[in-house]
Write a structure and sequence with these properties.
Length: 296
């Protein structure tokens, strides 16, 4: 899947197909194929954000970790992925996991008249900076492939040893750790950007980050769009007319309805006794007036 500016949507990425060999290319062959053919990698979502036609993603290797500590010590446990070159939009495509899908769309790229020089190629390397630089965390993800142990047995572990390692780690964090040990201890998930311990990454970090397909930018934009505008709310409240509270008048302007002089009203032209209650508009006496009248 990648972004198509003509469709203004995310569509299937056509997998490169080599007609001479009669097969699809392996992810490790993408950069070499780019040198001899007019091939570009998947487009990330930055094309939509920047209003461009195509923003090619970067192809590299992301480290994968699982519960097997012995296998994690190897330097050859990475996976080819296509990721946003600026690591801005959150685009990530696991190329090796889609290679085995049989119904993928294919594309035949035109062969170049002159191969590109090696200087114009993007070297396939780890997407995270190396440990020797010591200025960033490794970005890793879980390995979805479950492999059996060669001898078929279950690895034995002593909780005492694990607790001792945990206590030693906490003591080193309190007193201070060297830079090399710090970068080797912590890793960052390439999907949800959470930072956690390398040893417990595969066991404790589940695929909960895959359940939410929205990235931080999308959630932030949606939250801001659903947020009501305070100006609109204030304007609506100002437009609503409400009943003003009536204050008692210190001057008696009309008598009680039971004390109305009915004879005087009948002399008025157009007075109808049936509509007296509708046409007469008398002000009700206040509590102070009623008390004063009772005292009198």
């Amino acid at each position: 899947m990648h972004y198509d500016s003509t469709m203004q949507s995310v569509v299937d990425y056509p997998w490169p197909y080599d007609a001479e060999m009669g097969r699809r290319l392996f992810p490790s062959e993408f950069e070499g194929y780019r040198r001899t053919h007019e091939f570009v990698g998947p487009s990330c979502m930055c094309a939509h954000l920047d209003g461009k036609d195509y923003t090619e993603s970067r192809i590299g290797i992301v480290e994968t970790l699982n519960g097997d500590r012995d296998r994690n010590l190897s330097t050859l446990h990475g996976e080819y992925v296509a990721i946003c070159a600026k690591q801005r939009c959150g685009y990530l495509l696991c190329l090796e996991r889609f290679y085995a899908v049989g119904h993928l769309k294919l594309q035949r790229c035109r062969k170049r008249a002159q191969p590109l020089p090696p200087q114009e190629l993007t070297s396939i390397s780890s997407l995270g900076r190396s440990l020797s630089e010591g200025n960033s965390l490794f970005q890793v993800m879980q390995d979805v492939v479950v492999r059996a142990r060669p001898n078929g047995g279950i690895e034995a572990g002593d909780p005492v040893d694990q607790q001792a390692e945990k206590n030693a780690l906490y003591r080193s964090l309190q007193t201070g750790v060297c830079e090399h040990l710090f970068w080797a201890t912590f890793v960052q998930c390439v999907r949800c950007r959470r930072i956690m311990f390398r040893d417990t990454f595969a066991a404790n970090h589940s695929f909960e980050c895959l359940n939410s397909n929205r990235n931080a930018n999308e959630i932030q934009i949606r939250a801001s769009s659903d947020r009501p505008n305070p100006r609109r709310i204030r304007t609506r409240f100002e437009a609503i007319s409400g009943d003003r509270p009536q204050t008692p008048s210190p001057i008696r302007t009309a008598g009680r309805p039971l004390l109305i002089n009915r004879t005087a009203l009948e002399e008025v032209e157009g007075f109808d006794s049936d509509t007296e209650s509708q046409s007469s508009d008398f002000e009700m006496p206040t509590l102070q007036e009623l008390l004063a009248e009772r005292r009198a």
